[in-house]
Design brief:
Two copies of one chain form a homodimer.
Chain A: E1 7-10, E2 14-20, E3 23-30, H1 32-40, E4 46-52, H2 58-66, E5 69-70, E6 74-76, E7 83-88, E8 95-101, E9 121-124, H3 129-138, E10 144-148, H4 151-156, H5 158-165, E11 170-174, H6 175-182, H7 187-195, E12 201-205, E13 211-215, E14 218-222, H8 236-249, H9 260-281, H10 295-307
Helix pairs in contact in A: 1-8, 3-5, 6-7, 8-9, 9-10
């Protein structure tokens, strides 16, 4: 298909200070919406809804625009941009948050511009579930809603998260979050429980071990691609979500009504693309790799991932 | 093919006291050779080399014999059988060793019977690497040597383990052991390092996340099968090894000389069978499930695992 539906992405745009085994990198551009937008822009037009302070450089927005990312929805307000600082251990297996300054992100209220209300695909990054619902209220019935969340909202805002889940088609979380959300340790029964709350598809991310997809037709597993060198794991999860919804944007037209089998195949293939996009992201520091990604890079990695589970 | 080559399995036969969420089970029969032998006996004739004390019940050996397991090589000596006691946490995610009594296993010296010297496939369970080498010295050049080991020998007997590795065709270890053995955290580079020491194939077990295979032709990944209920994880790794070598026994004739591509395909398919066999093992307490396993059970699980990575 030659469909290229636009994608609305809501989330954070930030400055990250990264302490990596390869060196310390100050003031790199990060945030969930940034990574997801760069990832998705490899596939289709992306419209970002976020907030930055008056310290945020205009030239980063210009780089986004050259990738087909519409930055009109990135509100600039007085104050400082969200800032995160983290240190990775020597083998990149774990990280410690050194500092979090919400700054202007603390009062973020996503504003959907009139011309963006009809965007058919929406990726709701990890923000307060009420704000995620507000975004959907402002939209004119998107065809596909993909949501992310985290333990903080699962434990603190379970009722509001429940309302959001009832309106999401796809939920992307990690295995610990799936266990926490359902209160069930067994991942298969946890998934069945979560899918009863709304999403037709649940994707459980498992870091280097890849990801599992659960839907009414069954289970699909994509292994993580064992890279010879991981440079910086920051943004891998957001790049996965961006690559996932990006692939779908090239296959879902406006008003798409899919049969379960057709949907199952699309979602599974999108998971391959999400995994490939994430594994490209971690090849460079910060957004350096994801912001220069072309579809050939993703296609080549998809082929490498497929070879992991094809019998010769 | 209708080949059914016999398999020699060396390892421990033990009594296990298991504290599981579902209850406490005393004096269950366990041990690496027991699990691997029951697993492999689903595929072909198995010859066990092990030691038990005079407290070991004859009827357990009789059960083995009904499965085509030759127990003549299980030496009975004066004293008590190896005993292990462990407690699993509520979600079976981790376990604590409560007691280990080596008993007669402390002085175990595998003795290869004259009629077993020519056995074409050998599985060397996790015992002292010098004893593993002694077994190979006593054999008349087996076609396939699959070895297991553990962190205890990796750190304490690295030189002797090095000599054993030079004679093994396949090494099966977990990811932590692979990192420890190579001194390299990145699993892909760790695998490349280990394969330079002898084995043409390295299998890295990752528990519920499945396993990775590395050889000169590339990498193969098999996801763990997400069961709705795991009853007892004890023996999963040994059942994996037993199912793996069992499958190969049905495809490798005496004196088999395989081309790399043919070998790669066989090893990958064997990994699917190992994974399937292990996932059957954990459906019951101790050896209860693995000792009644029939090939149809394994084939059905292989099909379920394959469906995890097939696009509909």
């Amino acid at each position: 298909m030659t469909t290229r539906s636009p994608i609305l992405i809501v989330g954070s745009v930030a400055f990250d200070d990264l302490e990596l085994p390869s060196g310390t990198f100050k003031d790199t551009v990060g945030g969930s919406a940034t990574y997801a937008a760069f990832a998705a822009s490899t596939f289709s037009e992306v419209r970002v809804v976020a907030v930055v302070g008056d310290d945020f450089p205009q030239d980063v927005l210009a780089v986004m625009e050259t990738r087909g990312i519409v930055t009109k929805g990135i509100e600039r307000v007085s104050g400082k941009t969200f800032r995160w600082a983290g240190r990775y251990d020597a083998d990149l297996a774990s990280r410690t948050t050194l500092d979090t300054q919400l700054n202007v992100f603390a009062d973020f209220k996503p504003k959907i511009r009139e011309e963006q209300r009809g965007t058919p695909l929406v990726l709701l990054g990890n923000i307060h579930p009420t704000l995620q619902s507000d975004v959907l209220d402002a939209m004119s019935g998107p065809d596909l809603v993909v949501a992310d969340t985290m333990n903080f909202w699962i434990t603190g805002e379970s009722e509001k998260l429940g309302k959001l889940l009832a309106r999401a088609h796809v939920l992307i979380i990690n295995d610990e979050e799936a266990r926490q959300l359902s209160g069930i340790h067994n991942i298969r029964r946890a998934a069945a429980d979560i899918c009863k709350r709304g999403p037709h598809t649940l994707i459980v991310k498992r870091g280097e071990h890849g990801a599992l997809l659960f839907d009414e037709t069954g289970i699909f597993a994509v292994p993580g691609y064992p890279l010879e060198e991981v440079v910086d794991p920051t943004g891998a999860g957001d790049s996965f979500a961006g690559g996932f919804i990006g692939y779908l944007a090239t296959h879902l037209g406006r008003g798409a009504k899919l049969q379960p089998a057709e949907r199952a195949r699309l979602m599974r293939t999108a998971m391959l693309y999400g995994t490939a996009t994430a594994s490209r992201c971690v090849e460079g520091v910060g957004t350096s790799r994801i912001q220069t990604l072309v579809s050939g890079d993703v296609d080549a990695r998809v082929a490498q991932i497929r070879s992991l589970f094809e019998l010769p």
